[in-house]
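re: ur msg from earlier - yeah i can do the NAI complex, just paste it... oh wait u already did. ok heres what im feeding in:
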Amino acid sequence: MELFDLLVVGGGPGGYLCAERAAQGGMKVALFEKRALGGTCLNEGCIPTKTLLNSSKMYRHATESEAYGVTASGVIFDHAKVVARKNNVVKTLVAGVGATMNANKVTVITGDAVISGRADDGFAVTANGTTYTGRRLAIASGSETVIPPVPGLKEGLAAGFVVTNREVLDLMELPKEMVVIGGGVIGLEMAYYFASVGVKVTVIEMMPKIAGATDPEICKVLTDAFEKRGMVFKLSAKVLEVKTNSVIYEENGQQKEIACDKVLLSAGRRPATAGIGLETLGLQMDRAAIVTDRHMCTTVQNVYAVGDCNGKSMLAHTAYREAEVAVNHMLGKCDEMRYDVIPAVIYTDPEVASIGHSKEGAEKLGMNVKEVKLPMSYAGRYLAETNGGKGFIKLVVDTDRNRLVGCHMVGSYASEIIMTATMMVDTELTPDRLKKLVFPHPTVAEIIREAIFHI
Ligand code: NAI
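and the outut:
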């Protein structure tokens, strides 16, 4: 039987990059994927949602630009065409991953892989009735939608009245009224898309604010912008039941009902680790998550876990980095994972982006910090391109170490600008050194330079 150097279970960003890097490092690699290469990110997450959001942005520009001297009439939003374009974008990228695997001589096996324990020389994985063996194993099985125990939810999912992040991307018609359960990242991005193109959207969130751990002042700007767009938020609200064409929830101790023709379930994701034979390895788990160390090693030698399945930070860019760290460990190269320098973005309008610690978070860790907050309108380009925008930036500086330790932004281009701050936090430049960096003018990114001079 053919012996591989590495078997990778799961072909999302964590898995395919792990396979690619390992192959480039000289290993003979097999990659197992039961659906399409690219995983959640390419097929039902990052890429398709950004494709949809861009179409809704174009629609808004076409219909809401009178203040900028642009008036258009007869503008049509063709949702089916948007979905068709999204499918093409996804197809192209998935094909690109396939081509990369081929180019690196990775053996791709399309099928449901089940780990069947240890083999003589390492580990065994069975797919499509064939058993493959490898010296090492990388688990990159991703995550799955959490289905809370709400009466009627499972039936609603079966009937198609309730959809998850997967099915919502393929609706061929816009609903009229949509209820979104969960005001986290998925809920907000999709709610924003639908609300932007005329769907009446109500978000039911059990916490008192949206967007999870995002800076509360940023959440306020977001909430105001969304409400202006007609979105309704039911905060500190509990979903009690999903019926045939409505959702029953509790708000301020009162039971209420909202009629709708579609429900999006976005109440969180959890590591997809059941049913893949992990019990045959005896790995340490933390509930559904595979426990890993800073080299992405599990508690079983030569078994690694990268991406959402280790539950550390469910982001595609985290998975990429984890994949590289894992492969470097396999190759005996010095590397380790740093979770404190991973940027996070919410791709709504305005965009939200952050890196590192908040003031409160840093103080909890015992740091002495100073926070600087500036409106984005300090950047000329922001003012030129927005009308009454409420964007701002917050920089958090560790005053003892004289280092930038956090940056939090809401406003246009935040998703692109955050990398500038990420480099500063990661490479530990001093504010004095940062002051010497030349930013192109005019750019919204100049807000970082401006804020540094206010420290
Ligand atoms: P999430 O954890 O971000 O948000 C789930 C929200 O649902 C939370 O606010 C929670 O309080 C709420 N919730 C839970 N149960 C509820 C209930 N029964 N009723 C009402 N509210 C309830 O999870 P989400 O949005 O599903 O995203 C999953 C993962 O995907 C996250 O880890 C996220 O980082 C990732 N993701 C990242 C994106 C990005 O980077 N831009 C985009 C989309 C997803």
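cool cool. The first strand starts at residue 3 and ends at 9. ping me if u need the other ligands too
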